[in-house]
Amino acid sequence: MKNILITGALGQIGSELITFLGKRYGKEKVIASDIKSMPEGMINQIGIFEYIDCLDAQEIYSVIKKYRIDTIFHLAAVLSSAGEKNPQLAWKVNINGLYNVLEIAREYKCAVFTPSSIAAFGPSTPKDNTPQETIQRPNTIYGLTKVTGELLCDYYYSKYGVDTRGVRFPGIISYAALPGGGTTDYAVEIFYDALKYKKYTCFLDKNTSLDMMYMPDGLKAAVNLMEADPSRLKHRNAYNVTAESFNPGQLSGEIKKYIPDFEMNYDVDPMRQAIADSWPNRLDDTAAREDWGWFPDYDLKAMTKDMIEKLKVKLQVSV
Ligand code: AKB
């Protein structure tokens, strides 16, 4: 990785990946791009910023040529809950955007990281210890785009030799930027509301278990996979990865250890509950561990402690 382009760089993962890659490869080697304009507060954090709408192939081309990009972290996407509200847009952004990136990667010989998701599985997938290779019949448009994306990336690898790699991300928990439009977003919102108001109303049922991961592990997974020796990779798109699996009741219990008067209420949103119910409880990530040494550093306990410490500073609250 010499010159790196991040698409969707102002999103939840992108805004932290910029700094992570900048520290590792040099700030001037990381080109952040998005359809949103860069917030003033991020000027010091971002080395170079370019406007790119991934639906416009020319915009991607000109940045690839200008900076001699050899690696693309393609993060621009519409997530699960937002996708159900506008399936046409989700298909367009997630598929046409990816297609544009892959075509350019083919021509300019770029490596491509594209995140897949636990959403690439569906109701007929085994829910516990979900295998690396198993039934993938999702029933959300986001899930459909993730399965299609996995297959498309594998196709570009086998047909054209494009170095495509990906992981199936669980819900990502972080304090720097808010997620947007996902079903796992409750696991971030809860921390903000717990610290600000000492109460949170959860849109998922108390017992809904889902795979989750703290951002430092998510960044490590993406970058370690891209740095892995290609001869060791038995899979390309995409590897199961997980760090922790918990439900809203368990997360609330962990937060109460720090904020004893925290109150958790439930007002289940049928759409997001149906999405969550169609996803696995916990993935089996043995293949990632064996092929490229994946292991997470944070479990529920360690993640909660760090989230509360970091958010207390960010929100300037004491509990
Ligand atoms: C979502 O909830 O849509 C995402 C995901 C699991 O891919 N966080």
Automatic annotation (TrEMBL):
Taxonomy, superkingdom: Bacteria
A matching Pfam family: Epimerase
InterPro entries: Epimerase_deHydtase, NAD(P)-bd_dom_sf, NAD(P)_epim/dehydratase
Signal sequence interval, chain numbering: none
GO biological process, one term: L-threonine catabolic process
All residue ranges annotated as the NAD-dependent epimerase/dehydratase domain in the record: 4-241
GO MF term set: L-threonine 3-dehydrogenase activity
The family this protein is said to belong to: Belongs to the NAD(P)-dependent epimerase/dehydratase family.
PANTHER family assigned to the protein according to its UniProt record, in alphabetical order: L-THREONINE 3-DEHYDROGENASE (PTHR42687), L-THREONINE 3-DEHYDROGENASE, MITOCHONDRIAL (PTHR42687:SF1)
Protein's name in the database: UDP-glucose 4-epimerase
